[in-house]
Design goal:
The protein folds into two domains: about 350 residues, Alkaline Phosphatase, subunit A; about 70 residues, 2-Layer Sandwich (Arylsulfatase, C-terminal domain), CATH 3.30.1120.10. Helix content is about 20%, strand content about 15%. The chain has ten helices and 20 strands. The relative contact order is 0.21.
Length: about 475
């Protein structure tokens, strides 16, 4: 039996004024026949492109994601920010990242900065409805310099992984210091980071399963982000010849004969780990009542965007439209594709809607539950993509001059539902529509956070990483 969970919430969404959507939910009681709320497992890939999965035609071997795509809800129009930290911030708060000072850059190792404590994070809300175990496993990237930014102070009950981005997959170091942690302490576990993340996620599922309380696990892989490093056994799947040179200069740990081979091996290893997580959920009789969400934090910088235009760092589709799959066999019908525009800021309000959780949090995202359950065929909305860009179910607008890397000669307007490759600029044909979107993006582009994040390289000269990246200051 499939449960048809209906939204009891209301939301407000304004395109003409700086108004956040405030969601208030009435408690709907138990949401499954067993009386147990669903477990929640969110799996996030790092720099995985639209064209880097088998079910989108890639040569890269992703059999586990391909099998999931056959049975899950395929979120065909799922959008994120074009770079890591902003997506992670929006995922866990339901708010556009420029409100938190992370509009277009990540938090680098040398920055004394993080998402401020007054932001309400998803695990803080889940605690209110009995989610006793709330774990983050893998990459944090939302602040590392002070305890107030640490995941254990943001509603998570357990943290295993790394604080920074771009760590070494084998030494687990960033800037020459160990960045691998188990709660507040350094972890001296040895291994390839993708495997360590998978093994710990499996262990947590086994530990948490069987309890009366549901669990929340956020599995944030650092693959296939740089540095491009893979295990030899995975490289061999793509023709690695150890008698031939490994690519690049300097330390060649984990590098294959070329970048493409190494990237593919990294993706396949992550896919294998996702398969192990899914199998563990099934073995522990938890998969049916687990909301399992998979997506990438942004487009690729080393892989393929498939038929989409652009890559990581850009607001073109290849930078912001990512593979995304949603499974909840006990609550949602699978084996279907949804073309509704949805995205990272919708995850938190949608989950709260599922749980009937009354919340004072303010969101830019909105609940997609009515579309997921079939109560509504479509929800008309505009989704701000950052730096002068907005997408709707039918249209996409990008204003020139906001992102220098875009190299645009003029503003762009696309009939995105019919032109996903963004080939036909319709600015001259639909001038009124373009003006409507220009007004919309101005509302959000002009947001000035209390403490905006400086450019990436500022403060890098002379920086010395703390020993083992241990958090000391408050």
């Amino acid at each position: 039996m499939k449960l048809n969970v209906h939204s009891e919430g209301t939301w407000k969404f304004s395109t003409s004024a700086l108004i956040l959507s405030t969601v208030t939910f009435g408690c709907s009681g138990d949401v499954t026949e067993t009386g147990k709320r669903p477990n929640i497992v969110i799996v996030l890939a790092d720099d995985l492109g639209w064209g880097d999965v088998g079910y989108h035609g890639s040569h890269i071997q992703t059999p586990n994601l391909d099998r999931l795509a056959e049975t899950a809800v395929r979120l065909n129009r799922f959008y994120v920010a074009p770079v890591s930290t902003p997506t992670r911030a929006g995922l866990l708060t339901g708010r556009y990242p420029n409100r938190m000072g992370v509009r277009h850059v990540v938090i680098p190792p040398w920055r004394d900065y993080g998402i401020e404590p007054d932001e309400i994070f998803l695990p803080q809300e889940l605690e209110k409805v009995g989610y006793k175990h709330r774990a983050i496993i893998g990459k944090w990237h939302l602040g590392h310099s002070r305890k107030k930014y640490y995941p254990l102070n943001r509603g998570f009950t357990h943290f295993y992984g790394h604080l920074n981005g771009a760590i070494d997959f084998f030494s687990l170091e960033r800037e020459g210091e160990l960045d691998w942690h188990d709660d507040w302490e350094s972890s001296y576990d040895k291994g390839y980071s993708t495997d360590l993340i998978t093994e710990h996620a499996v262990r947590c599922i086994k530990d948490y399963s069987g309890e009366k309380d549901p669990f929340f696990i956020y599995v944030a892989y650092n693959a296939p982000h740089t540095p491009l490093q893979a295990k030899d056994e995975d490289l061999e799947l793509y023709g690695f010849d150890p008698s031939e040179p490994r690519f690049g200069q300097g330390d060649k740990t984990g590098r294959g004969n070329n970048k493409e081979q190494t990237f593919a091996a990294m993706v396949t290893c992550m896919d294998r780990g996702i398969g192990q997580i899914i199998r563990t959920l099934k073995d522990m009789d938890e998969f049916e009542n687990t909301i399992f969400l998979f997506f990438s934090d942004n487009g690729t910088d080393n892989g393929s965007s498939g038929e989409l235009r652009g890559r990581k760092f850009l607001e073109f589709e290849g930078g912001v439209r990512v593979p995304a799959l949603l499974s909840w066999p006990a609550g949602l019908q699978g084996e279907r594709t949804i073309d509704q525009v949805t995205g990272y800021v919708d995850v938190m309000p949608t989950l709260l809607d599922v749980l009937g959780l009354q919340s004072t949090a303010e969101f830019d995202g909105m609940s997609m539950l009515p579309v997921l359950t079939g109560e509504k065929a479509v929800i008309e909305r505009n989704l701000y993509l950052g730096l002068g860009a907005v997408v709707s179910n039918e249209w996409k607008f990008i204003e020139k001059g906001h992102n220098p890397a875009m190299e645009m000669k003029s503003d762009m307007l696309f009939k995105i539902d019919a032109d996903p490759s963004e080939q036909n600029n319709l600015m001259d044909t639909y001038k009124e529509k373009a003006e409507e979107f220009r007004s919309f993006v101005k509302t959000y582009d002009t947001i000035q956070p209390p403490r905006p994040l400086p450019d990436y390289g500022m403060g890098r000269d002379g920086f010395v990483a703390p020993e083992e990246w241990k958090v000391t200051g408050n």
